[in-house]
Amino acid sequence: MFTGIIEEMGKVASVSKKGKAMTLAVNCKTVLADAAIGDSIAVNGVCLTVTAISESQFQADVMPETYEATTIKQLVPGQFVNLERAMAVGSRFGGHIISGHVDGVGTIQKRQPVENAVLFEVEADRELVRYIVQKGSIAVDGTSLTVFAVTDTSFTISIIPHTLEMTIMGTKKPGDHVNLECDIIGKYVEKLLAPKESAVRTPLSQLLKENSYM
What we know:
By secondary structure, the protein is α+β, with helices and mostly antiparallel strands. The chain has helices at residues 64-69, 126-129, 161-166, 184-193, 204-210, and strands at 8-18, 21-27, 40-43, 46-53, 57-62, 80-85, 104-114, 117-123, 137-140, 143-150, 154-159, 177-182.
């Protein structure tokens, strides 16, 4: 589990692809402080498992499903990425609950400076936007952000200078693709409220017969 508070920007050292499988190596510092093989690190919002580690780099494998569903496949050596370690018990919870399981990929449509902030309009699939609400939270490339406005096919986020400086959002421009993960609470609520055939109550007489009481 992650919170969407990016710890540092790492730099892609190498990318090795074989079909839709991929091995990614990232140069970094902060997230390696207490990292070990088997730990989870979110790379642009994608939860990856550390498979190798050194003083200045970690490696992770990317399976075909993740390769297809995220922007990970677009990474090239020299590119910067958002990095966050899994949340530690007892640490501050500055963002929102993020699983690292990307829901889809959005496309930046507009970038508009407004006073000391920058507005980004992001286009996404309708099935994804339905989980996004105004003033709610969304993870964009792993960064926890507050939704400024929503339409049927897009949403707008307002980003302060600090976030632009400390994450890769500062480099984003119209046409760029970003990983999106909606607030998981909405998905659970929808599932719990969805009608199910199995939820229909069985008549007492039938239950008694099925259990050999009649």
